[in-house]
Amino acid sequence: MIVIGKLYRLVRGHLRRISWGVVATALALHMGLTWLLLSWAGEAKLVAADAFVYYYMTTASTVGYGDLSPGSPAGRLVVALFVMPGGIALFASVLAKTSASLLHFWKRHQMGKMSYDDLQGHTVLIGWHGRESERLVRLLLADTHTDDEGIVLLAEGLTENPMPEQIRFVAVDSYADCGEYPRAALAGAARVIVHAADDDRSLAAVFAVMSHRPAAHVVAHFDAAAAAELVRSHYPHIECTRPLHVDVIARAAQDAGSSLVAGEWLGAGGPTQFSLQVPADAAPVQAGKLAGAFRAQSALWVGYRDGRSASPILNPPDHVEIAPGTLLYYLADARIDGRRVPWSALAAG
Fold this sequence. Notes:
The protein is α/β, with parallel strands linked by helices. It contains 10 helices and 12 strands. The protein has helices at 2-17, 20-40, 52-60, 73-110, 131-142, 199-210, 225-234, 245-254, 258-265, 287-296, and strands at 123-126, 151-156, 168-172, 191-194, 217-221, 239-241, 273-277, 285-286, 300-305, 313-314, 321-322, 327-331. A 6-stranded parallel beta sheet has the order 3-2-1-4-5-6, sandwiched between helices. Strands 7-12-9-10 form a 4-stranded antiparallel beta sheet, covered by helices on one side. A two-stranded antiparallel ribbon has the order 8-11. Helix 7 links the parallel strand 5 and strand 6 (239-241). It is elongated, with a radius of gyration of 32 Å. It starts with a helix and ends in an 18-residue tail after the last strand.
């Protein structure tokens, strides 16, 4: 009795929600009974192996090409009273279930309930600031060199994807919940940007991210210097950014027009600041020759950062030798292809 009761409750649950199992079973039963009744009515042409499924589907879907039809009075009664009503009802059920499944799938994406475990080389953006974040997303997508697999937004306090056509979305209850980050494929990300609503949330996000030890380049934005220093003391390789308003104001007061230059330099009018790495297999290059190579491509080389220096070295003397693997910073209208730089001709000596 216990087994029968469990079976009854299971079947009743499937019937109540009209599951795919119920629809498939009903469709199979209806097709089977249709075949038997048409056979009884003598419709040998309709129940043939090469015609039955085709005839049943065209009838159930109301397409009705007319190339196959019952020829006997009994056959016409079977089709009119059993095949058409049942087939059309079942076909409508299949369409309704398919539409509901697609809508449910879309809602899960829209509401941030999905996981994107298979992504590689993408950007994970943590935090959302309305129009400011929209501009950040558009700037990231505008640079096709770093677009790769696109952007996954991970944010708390959002009920749906703010830019469904441009980015993927993962909703979380708290940035401190380390278990949510794998849904954004953190292990395969090429870069992570942490820009939460305040420094406390950004700190929680940074420590949660680093608990997964990602191979990605991590950038975290903080308003307070103390928060940025705390992160640097634990993770020196994380690039921490802070608002530059005070610095820009001071420089503009002392040197007229400096704020305009800074705005253009940081990309206010479009992408202008880029980086390029000296190939690991190249010989050390000379700073003076390197500056000339960038000028030949309508770019301005401004400095470099190697593994020995925590901060970039700007405007180095011409005689300085730049080691392989060093990151170079330059200003240009568009990103330069490293393969177009004649590294062998720039060797020191």
